[in-house]
Design goal:
Layout lengths: L11 H22 L13 H13 L4 H13 L3 H8 L9 H18 L5 H19 L4 H13 L3 H14 L8
């Protein structure tokens, strides 16, 4: 039997050091990857459509449908101030005023709910919500709009406004007045 004496490519000590360094690196990567990931957007919401809509509305400020859609997306992300700014041009008399007023009421209610009770911020949010409520109930009232206004008034603790809106809705549609 002949035994060949070959030279090793990597000495055993160097191989052991390399294996330990690689294992240590993998462990460090695994520990880092196991930590909490930062949220870039609200769960279930993708920020890319909002960025696209914002860019589109900036380039086409006259497109009211896209402006409404941007407002809905911003509301879903909880960006109340951005929604108000987006909807401001649509609250003037026009074909989308009714839908913009409803969305603006939703924004005002969401902002009111988000504020702690008994604070000046909540009182200001309530005043804005009541102003939006008057806008929804006053301009081109529909049964659905008045029903939503009545529900919002009850939520705000204003049964007088709720009753007035419900009475106006019942006057518009006497057949369904049992709903209110």
């Amino acid at each position: 039997m002949t035994r060949s004496t070959g030279r090793r490519l990597i000495p055993p000590v160097a191989m052991a050091v390399f294996v330990l360094a690689a294992a240590g690196g993998l462990v460090a990567l695994r520990v880092e990857a196991g930590g909490p990931l930062p949220d870039l957007a609200a769960p279930g919401r993708d920020p890319l459509p909002v960025a696209y809509l914002r860019a589109f509305v900036a380039g086409h400020p006259e497109d009211q449908a896209m402006r409404l859609r941007l407002g809905r997306e911003q509301l879903a992300l909880g960006k109340f101030a951005d929604v108000e700014q987006t909807l401001a041009p649509l609250l003037a008399p026009g074909p989308t005023q009714r839908e913009a007023a409803r969305l603006s009421l939703e924004v005002a209610l969401a902002a009111w709910r988000a504020r702690p009770a008994g604070t000046a911020e909540r009182a200001g949010a309530e005043a804005r919500a009541l102003a939006r409520l008057d806008l929804v109930a006053g301009h081109g009232p529909t049964v659905d709009g008045l029903t939503r206004a009545a529900a919002a008034a009850r939520e705000l603790g204003r049964p007088d406004l709720a009753a007035r809106a419900a009475e106006r809705a019942a006057g518009l549609d006497r057949e369904r007045c049992a709903v209110w």
